[in-house]
Amino acid sequence: MAQFWKPGAEKPQLLDDEEGGVLFVFSSAFSSSSSGYGYASIEKQRQRLPVYKYRTAILYLVETHATTIIVGETGSGKTTQIPQYLKEAGWADGGLVIACTQPRRLAVQAVASRVAEEMGVKLGEEVGYTIRFEDVTDTDKTRIKFLTDGVLLREMMDDPLLTKYSVIMIDEAHERSISTDILLGLLKKIQKRRPELRLIIASATIEAKAMSAFFQTRRRRAVESVEPPLSMEPAILSVEGRGFNVQIHYVEEPVSDYVQAAISTVQLIHDKEPYGDILVFLTGQDDIDAAVKLINEEARNGGKNSSGLFALPLYSGLSRAEQELIFSPTPRGKRKVVVSTNIAETSLTLEGIVYVVDSGFSKQRFYNPITDIENLIVAPISKASARQRAGRAGRVRPGKCYRLYTEEYFLNEMSAEGIPEIQRSNLVSCVIQLKALGIDNILGFDWLASPSPEAMIRALEVLYSLGVLDDDAKLTSPVGFQVAEIPLDPMISKMILASNQLSCSEEVLTIAAVLSIQSIWFIERGIQKEMDEAKLRFAAAEGDHVTFLNVYKGFLRSGKSSKWCYKNYINYHSMKTVVEIREQLRRIAQRLGIVLKSCDRDMQAVRKAVTAGFFANACRIEPYSHNGMYKTVRTSQEVYIHPSSVLFRVNPKWVVYQSIVSTDRQYMRNVISIDPSSLTEVAPHFYRQQGPIF
DNA sequence: GAGCACTGC
């Protein structure tokens, strides 16, 4: 491990961290020159951040090491300060740019505007940001650029060595999103070609050792031609956070029902503890709605200990108004309980939380490459997640965290880190992106965590069947390159390409945009009947895809009205996103030479285009089936049409689906009826191999 | 008869 201290400075201490690894900590503040901006109060605030006393150390490490790993808890100020330190030290001189990536759009925007404010510059000039649909940068002026890691990956398609950047900081690396993992693998490759490029990997947890081992190049010797010599060995620096102390409580015996246990714990806190809001982590909408109802009923029925207690749900599917409720300050004499999914673990930060109740579970995605199905499964969280959850209690003052599992379980059974997303997902998009960047040997790629060979092979098979890869697993021309250019699931991209010859690109672009978001329907319990009736107003006999076209037309006709959406139980937010994605796709399609044409009422063409992308997901209803059982053509799996589909209970003989959700049954989502002859027509190579099926 | 969370030229 890298050992460094600045000559003449106090020698840093080596400390054992709690996982038994060695960390590098500086024991006293380093002197730091003022940056000279005329904002005294902001400058003072900056200096109060924990990261400030490491300023000189960070700059020295970045100068002398190709890769610097910074472990810093929330509140250390690393995200906003380090890019500024680098800029002040001259890393953006000569027209170069300092990049800092985030996994989420909101974080990119928030951090960029904060940094622009601190520097006293207009956002979009010296400090800018880029997220999908929004490029707030100026090619000539922007020196510090915040962006999502997905955008940086896309930028590599045009500039594989990312030559305009002098330093790239990958933030929140511990979250291990697919994009982060791919990016880190590629950046390691770039480093070999561009030794002058500096990487900073910022992570909240002590995964630093694994990360450091990954960036350890075989060539251990330093590059000595430069001064000071550049070490290829990663440096690790730990920066403390600024959270308050959180006292952890465990249950003595394992609980059997964590919803019930969470409710009792909330009541216990309300009964015994001083004021302060409570955040409860459960797994999904079902659990959450049930818990909220029970807590509020107890409070209303005048349970003597429950007065003043009120509970609110929090999950991604909530409307704007419901979300605002959660962020409004708690009235005096009241105690707010927010019952949330994982969304409150990383994406949203609630102020005023003093108590956290942690069920120890979350819903996680798992991919099975054999069946090619992604499942959502309630699974135990990792120690890292548990710490993150606990930390939510210490933002305003010292707090308490009640874990609904035993200490013994936490210490001995809970895994240190979660399984990285790349090992839990379908890899088609990831593989095509690597192929487009010229990485031909996917199996031999230098992964931070290697996906299973089965998953990689499955992805290669799917891409081969789509005609995106050839026999040598190289991108085909033009189809492969075109599909890679479109920022969507390759099956959807293939559907768009097919629409060109079928003269229905206008319709298919709309369908593609809708298929690439979660759902356009507004979801609320208790009003199912009204919602179903509203859906019937748009329902098309062909299936969900054509229904989406009807909704989109209606939305445009209403003048993109939010009222119209509300009246029709359609998610206004989703529709706005659909319009944006469609516009982006329209531009890309035109660049790819796709002629924008409408097929008017000829839905045959639309069905054929959908089939050209999703032929591998063809299903036939079981003969004499009275419960709507289908079998997939490829693997003969039992599947059913999802109750949210307009084809639910309609059960046409042949369908293709977009995806499968797996609960007690395997449900097909987004289903369209097809003519089986079109399968052999659009994918003869695929259906000839499968043997006689009709 | 039913939905963890993010994200992309």
Number of domains: 4
Helicity range of the residues?
25-40%
* DSSP summary, beta strand count: 23
- Count of DSSP helices? 25
CATH topology tier name of the largest domain: Rossmann fold
End-to-end Cα distance: 63 Å
Radius of gyration: 27 Å
Main sheet characteristics: 8 strands, mixed
The largest beta-sheet arranges its strands as: 6-5-7-4-8-9-3-10
Content of β-strand:
15-25%
CATH class of the largest domain: Alpha Beta
Secondary structure class reads: alpha/beta
- Outline: globular
CATH architecture heading of the largest domain: 3-Layer(aba) Sandwich
* Chain-averaged pLDDT: 87
CATH level-4 homologous superfamily of the largest domain: P-loop containing nucleotide triphosphate hydrolases
Organism: Punica granatum
GO molecular function: ATP binding; hydrolase activity; RNA binding; RNA helicase activity
Domain Helicase C-terminal: 264-438
Catalytic activity: ATP + H2O = ADP + phosphate + H(+)
